[in-house]
What does this fold into?
Amino acid sequence: MKIISQNFKLLAVFLLAITFTSCSDDDDNGTTTTTTVVDIALANNLTSLAAALQATDLVTTLQGDGPFTVFAPTNAAFADLLAATGLDLDNLSTTEEDLVRNILLNHVIIGETINSAALVTAGSGYASTGATGPNGENLSLYFNTTSGVVLNGVSTVDNADNMASNGIVHIVDEVIGLPTIATFATTNPALSTLVDALVYADTGAPTVPYIETVSDATAGPFTVFAPTNDAFSDLLTELNVSGLSDLGTETVNAVLLYHIVNANVQSSQLPNGTVTTLGGDITADNTAFTLTDANGRVSNIIVSLVDIQSMNGVVHVIDKVILTPQ
It folds into this structure.
């Protein structure tokens, strides 16, 4: 199972397939009836989802062997999406059809049947969906079960564990939009201090308008080495300051630049040597999975929290803040 607990890897718009085989001996020939995830959607009156699947030629895909885990939005959730975007399922352009298909696939985990008990046991984490980013990488989905099962911070599971012959379907109350770096930074509580640092840098004269950039699906792509809250806490102790505001926006801006690469670099593409960030060069060791700054300080890349893929880049979580040359 690819679900990983908090601080581990985990899963944008609305499918989830279930595994339920209804075996009935027909009086005449003893046939077996199979219920696919599409059938489950129809049985739960998810007519808008069914229409979207039809409009994007995904019905046959989700009637396949799978297994699939599908997070299926309600009709009301779908109506909200169409109202907000102005999309007409009966009259989609080629570009719009591709967009809707990708949104639908962002609700589907392919190759696994993940029930609600497994999600709750994991607590939180990331999983890969069937949706893809601009360069073909599979997008990630973040789940958190602190208060129900919440996906990417916006969509809650209302009706879980609808089993089908080719997977499992969980019905959700909102369509899960295609994620950005900001999506994953703001929904994971373990990265809240990083968000605070981005916001604080923006109050000064940042080289990059951080919040605007990481929220823009068309920006980048970027690679972000994201320090945990504990990493920032350790930094404050190391520098003998009580908070980021003691460092000044110019300093925080300079430090943040050392955590951003102007390219989408997944973990398998990390070099064994120089990595050029927006701030300057650091050194990667793709065997030990570490980053070393100009001061010889070593940041470990948390192996279970890599390749968190969004539309505008990828996030790798690290355990120590990278510093500018001292």
In short: The chain is about 30% helix and 25% strand. Residues 1-28 have pLDDT under 50 and may be disordered.
